[in-house]
Amino acid sequence: MNEPKHEVREQITHTSDEAAYNAMARLALRQQAIERTLQDDEHPEKGLQVARGKAHDQIMSLLHDLAKDVLRPSDPPFYVEHEKTRSFVRCTPLGQQLLDVACADFYQIEADYPLHDFSPIYKVFARLRRLMPVFSSAFFNRSVLPNDADLTQVAALRLVDALRRAFGRESVKSANENFRRGAMDNFNGLSDSVSWLAQRHQEVIGLRFDLFQRAVDSQPVRFGDHPSLDGLDEFMAWRERFHRSLDRHFGKKLLGYFWALEYGRESKFHIHYFVIVDARVRVDHVDLVEMLGGKWASVTDGRGYVYNANAHANRQTYPALGRIDLNNPQTIKGLQFLMSYLTLAGLFVKLDVKKRFRTFAKGRFPKKALRKAGRPQDRAYGSRLKISVAEARGVMKFI
Predict the structure, then answer these.
(1) How many CB atoms lie within 10 A of CB 222?
(2) How many CB atoms are closer than 10 A to CB 168?
(3) Which pTM value belongs to this model?
């Protein structure tokens, strides 16, 4: 075991900044909308192509932030200014954000997330918006007839009142906390695991890859269609066989791993993997992933293919792939972005496979922190996020 040269400085510390988590969840949704498929099913050697779907990340993040903002005491978010022959419906900053959410296409959002379950906060917004009279953004902040202005304000304030009543209910608050808990636990558990690993190993190798399958005559899911779970049993059985092969190959040099199952309209079911191995493995990290890709192809009888993120490690904003130093704060930050990508989208929306399979797992990491001053360290409570709202909103590419 290669011991750290000095104590790990970049530990995940406590913060109660929910806005930062929501910002990371938004970034995760944006990344999930990037799908990779084969350019040619008959000729996989031609490589992958990128399809960018609609993430709706801005609206999804905004409506979750508004769930608390709307409960705070404030002036009416919509008001009318009357002039001689014309009137204007004005918005406060809160009102403008509510208007942006109210004018979102909830039907389109749900169509773009097949096989997913939405948070209770989203469901409240979507249900109330559909029940309320239709009003257009064209009636706000521009000249309209006085009667139209009054009717528009009444409709808008009615929606605000309904939102305040709904979000003030303990049942809604509790349901949303329960919905978010799994994603938070996964992220915090991973952060602990990486911190505990960093106490034991300074230099490691990080491998990042995605597992796909090439389905014969596969077509993207059409809007409005409900995709099937057919083929998922076989796909997850392949994953188990692949993982056993990975485990046997690295043996005790496998220091930790985590993976997440996702579903995309173009790429269907696929799995994101991150594997950490001992730095004493002397094979090039890109070649290691290529070797694992060969194992996946063998397990799937040639129907599987892999995206090798390590082959593009030089494009990463943070050094989290290849041979990495767990004492480097930038590496820890890169790993946190990666961990958030595979966990925190679940704060807003989750893959729904009817509890037939796990959609996230980790393993092989140390089970606890090293002892200090003669006694073991307890697991920290609260969040482990060390990325600010500004950093999360400012990063466009990190994996």
Answers:
(1) 10
(2) 11
(3) 0.85
